[in-house]
Amino acid sequence: MRNFDYAKLSTMLWDTEILSYIAKIHEYKGRQALYLRQKPMELERLVEVAKIQSTEASNRIEGIITTKSRLKQLCEDKTTPKNRDEKEILGYRNALNLIHENYPYIPVKPNYILQLHKELLKFTNLSYGGIFKNTANEIDMRLPDGTMQIIFKPLLPYETPQAIENICASYENILNKELVDPLLLIPCFILDFLCIHPSAQIVLDDTMDLQIRITADRRSKMTVILTCQSKMSGTLRAVFCLFHAAQGQSGDHRLFGSSLNLL
Fold first, then answer.
1. Residue 179: which of 1, 3, 14, 6 has the closest Cα?
2. Which H helix or E strand runs over 216?
3. Separation of alpha carbons 4 and 159, rounded Å
4. Is 132 helix (H, G, I), strand (E, B) or coil?
5. Contact at 8 Å (CB) between 222 and 259?
6. Which residue in 15, 40, 54, 237 has its CB near the most CB atoms, within 10 A?
């Protein structure tokens, strides 16, 4: 997790099924641009529905739940939050709105990610919004007998700012040179970001699950399936939020193809 060079992705052989999906996504993106000119009001309505659904899904995966009526009122700014869950929902909504309205002007840079992280936690009493971790944050799992087991060690705090700077610089460089399709580049960036884990601690209990399964075929192509049903750190959610709006070999791990089921 200390050497990030996304240029290597341009030399990889990709599964034809993945390339087919990418082609279809780009096709539908082009159709969306046409609908935007022909039926802007309908598309805007769909965008608002998508924002509410995204807010609900992303927060539900963290165990942050409210009623559908309350969620709709919070997303439409027709009420104030009653508890911590609703404060986090409101922060997510504000960050998502900020990105949807300004994403062409928001580069993928550490300062912007931290600003979004701060926005996510603005309505809570948490003190670490908008800053990187200052203590080690191994990902632990609480076993049924109550003991803790370390299942993953991210980078140490002193390594984190430079690592985030490096993945952002490599991402922007490859994106601007158009060496790799963004739909391949983005999940690899997110995977690296998750492995660095630049924000708060994640503690998993026996009802939660974090799995990284790596399988390699005879051509040494790798597929990474990352399933995380635990609470994600706020900084990570800021990155998902950013890429959600905009699109719409991972370091030393040598992970080249990524399939993430986090949202």
1. 6
2. strand 210-216
3. 13
4. coil
5. no
6. 237
